[in-house]
Amino acid sequence: MRVAVVENMRNTGLGALATALDEAGAEIEWFRVWRNGILPPDIASHDALVVLGGEQGALDDETHPYLPELARLARRFGDAGKAVLGICLGSQILARAYGADNYLGTAREFGWHSIGVTDEGRADPLLSALGGEFTMFEWHADTFSLPAGAVRLASSPVAENQAFRIGRAVYGTQFHFEADRTVIEQWKAEFPDTIERIAPGWLESYAELTAQHAGGADAAGLAIARAWVGQIERQEVEMLSQVPA
Question: What confidence category does residue 243 fall into, taking pLDDT thresholds of 50, 70 and 90?
Answer without folding.
Answer: very low
